Structures are given as structure tokens and as C-alpha cells.
Amino acid sequence: MATASASLARNRTTLVLIVAMFVAPVVLAWLLANGYIDLPGDKRLNHGALISPPIDLRTYPDTPAMGALRGLAPADWAVVYVGPDACAEACARALRELAVIRTVIGNDGTRVSVFGLVAKEAALSDPKLPRILIDPASVTALGKDLASRGPEVKPPLVAFLDWRGQLMMHFPPDAPPAAIKEDLRRLLRASAIR
To answer: What does the pLDDT look like over 85-141, one tens digit per residue?
Structure first.
């Protein structure tokens, strides 16, 4: 009788361990996802700030600039410098850095386009700059939409645009290129069509 109850206890312990082995990861993932447990060093956070809710550029008037931004292939992204004025030296420097980030990413860089969206035309003669789109009405409308997301969200800024025409995340124009590259690389990896 003692061996039967010992065997039954051992079987129950084994069953509990097997169930715990499958349930514990699910519970841990739920706790992490809902913020009950924080990871050290903020390893799970983005460097940029999410635009919530995203701004849908498909609702903007159909201008040549908006057409260029909406014309991304599925699973492609655009990094857009949005400036309230003409593209001066700060804008040109940011666009050069964004173009370098696109190159440094490697193979996934082919899925990234870099644009400048500004309100006024400037006399820049640098052929190495990415495409600069001039659309004052869209920049003004975008500035209003961004301001509705928070007082600190306003042009100039750098934003990620997905292939569905939605601005998803923004950075200040002087954000470290490594931070932009890391977030962009994460987005490209997560959105790859296999």
C-alpha cells in the first residue's frame, strides 16, 4: 500500500511539472507584455516614440508628394524627414545621415526609401541628397495631426512610414543615427514577407 501511494504521489508530481513546463512560459510572456515585469536596461523599448494612433497619409489630398509617399511596395518602409520650412543645412545633414543608415542596414536597406518632406523649396545643389518633396499644405496638415498627438510632437522630425501609408514612429531630427538604425532594423525584420 505504501508503494502504491508513493507511486501515485510521484505520478502527480510528474504531471504537475509537465503542466508547469508548458504554462509557465505563457504566464511569463503575459506578465512581460502587460508590464508587470520590467526587463533590466529597457531592452524591450523602442528608441523612437510611437505615434498613437498612427497618422494615415491616405486621408491627405492626393498631391505628387503624397503620391510618392504612398507608393511604397508591400513590406517596404520610408524614413521621412518632415521640416516646416525649406531644407536648409540641418535638414540636409539629417537626410545624409538617413541615407547612410539605409546603406548600413545591408540587404534589408533595399526595402527602405528616404524622403525629405518640406514646406518650401530651397536652393540645395547636393545631388547625393535623397528625394526632397515640397508640399506646404501636407506639411501644415501633418503638423496639426502631430500636434494632436502631443505638444512635443511637431516638425522638424524624422518619422517611419509603412507601406500602408501610416506614420508609425517619430524621432527628433538630431536623434542618434544608431537609435534610428536599431529601430528601423527591428521593423524591417518584423515586417519581412517570407
So the answer is: 887 788 888 888 888 888 887 776 677 888 888 888 776 666 677 778 888 888 888
Would you state the pLDDT for residue 45?
66
**Predicted TM-score (pTM) of this structure:** 0.71
Its sign, for the CA torsion 99, 94, 64, 164, is positive
